[in-house]
Design a protein that fits this description.
Length: 390
């Protein structure tokens, strides 16, 4: 999940930036004031208790606030994360938020503070008061609000600065310029997260092309069993003699041979990127369990599974066309071997896809059209899947 806090003095443009962040990243807006009003409006036990305190002229204490914010978090987990406004306001509430996130098995991603000089904030607020005919926003009131902001925010900034998740943003310029500065850091944050993607699709579905695009875009390394097998055969490796008969017949190479090649590749590329795109693996349920075990050893897991959907006749047409190019595969030599390969894929790999569907990890993508069109379809859901990692 992507969980953000946006700080800034009155007039810094937090509202505008909050809307842009929520729209871009499908974040749910959590405001202490709004959550409190919702509880009161709903007539809940918490709402009634808070209402009584407010009507008596008191301040709602942290014991009630933590429960109200907790309810808001649990009620809105359909989004890809949260954007907080007005919470936390104190050092104690900062610890409370950490505790709430721990219960959700997630954490705060980053805190942004919009740096805008008091003079500019005053200028903006006076202009807004004039445009909206708000007599309550005068110089005296604005000065008091700015002073209060600085007094209350400083301890919080020290708390988050020590945690290494505070980022200061130049709040001067138009809203698009400011958002571009914020978005640069959000993108960097997402790109630091591990990502492992499985690319499913029948032979001819375009897996190689889309795997290359994903690898370049998300800083991933490609693990292609087909390429590993070809490299082993062409390089006359120790396993070449055992692998060749299977490739010539268009059959799946036994697991004990494939696993050795994958483990070797993982060792060679360990730490070279943020994760992997697996193309052509796993092809069986046994291989799916094996891959889970391999990734678990590395302290990571599968982020999502992309299933490229292409009609059978289109697959045959593509594979026949490929048979006349240097990129042809051994099973491209005739219509009979092509059909045999497609049938075997259906029988052996469809159960694997079912396995990942049961874990709600499969994203089905229409694989017809240009390479660019297909990638446009799959990039956004992949980004969301990676972003939703705990």
């Amino acid at each position: 999940m992507l969980n953000l806090i946006l700080f800034g003095p009155p007039g810094a443009g937090k509202g505008t930036q909050a809307e842009m962040l929520m729209s871009r990243y499908n974040l749910n807006y959590i405001s202490t004031g709004e959550a409190l009003r919702n509880e009161i409006k709903a007539g809940s036990a918490l709402g009634l208790k808070a209402k009584a305190i407010i009507e008596a002229g008191g301040l709602v204490d942290d014991e009630i606030i933590v429960q109200i914010i907790g309810n808001a978090l649990h009620a809105e987990q359909r989004s890809d994360g949260f954007l907080f406004d007005g919470f936390p306001r104190t050092y104690v509430q900062a610890y409370i938020l950490d505790g709430l996130f721990t219960r959700l098995q997630t954490a705060l991603s980053r805190i942004f503070i919009l740096d805008v000089p008091d003079e500019e904030c005053t200028k903006r607020l006076l202009q807004r008061a004039k445009e909206q005919n708000r007599s309550d926003d005068n110089k005296v009131v604005i000065k008091r609000r700015l002073q209060e902001y600085h007094q209350k925010t400083l301890p919080l900034l020290e708390f988050y600065e020590s945690a290494g998740i505070l980022t200061r943003i130049d709040g001067m310029g138009n809203s698009e310029q400011v958002f571009e500065r914020i978005n640069k850091h959000v993108t960097e944050e997402l790109n630091r997260r591990p990502a492992n993607i499985i690319l499913f699709g029948y032979p001819g579905a375009g897996r190689a092309t889309q795997a290359a695009r994903l690898a370049a875009d998300f800083n991933l390394r490609i693990i292609s069993t087909g390429e590993l097998l070809q490299e082993e055969v062409m390089g006359k490796g120790s396993l070449a003699g055992k692998i060749t008969p299977y490739l010539e017949k268009g059959l799946l190479v036994p697991d004990e041979l494939v696993i050795r090649l994958i483990e070797k590749k993982l060792k060679e590329t360990d730490g070279a990127g943020r994760g992997y795109v697996f193309k052509g693996y796993p092809r069986t349920l046994v291989q799916a369990y094996i891959l889970d075990g391999i990734l678990k050893k590395q302290g990571t897991a599968i982020s999502c599974v992309i299933s490229l959907k292409v009609p059978v006749l289109e697959l045959i047409r593509r594979l026949d066309a490929r048979s006349h190019t240097p990129e042809k595969m051994p099973y491209d030599i005739s219509a009979a071997t092509i059909v045999a390969r497609l049938e075997e894929h259906q029988q052996r790999t469809e159960p694997v896809l079912d396995y990942y569907q049961q874990q709600n990890q499969v994203i089905e993508i229409d694989g017809t059209g240009t390479d660019e069109t297909v990638y446009e379809r799959l990039r956004e859901p992949v980004l969301r899947a990676v972003k939703n990692l705990k």
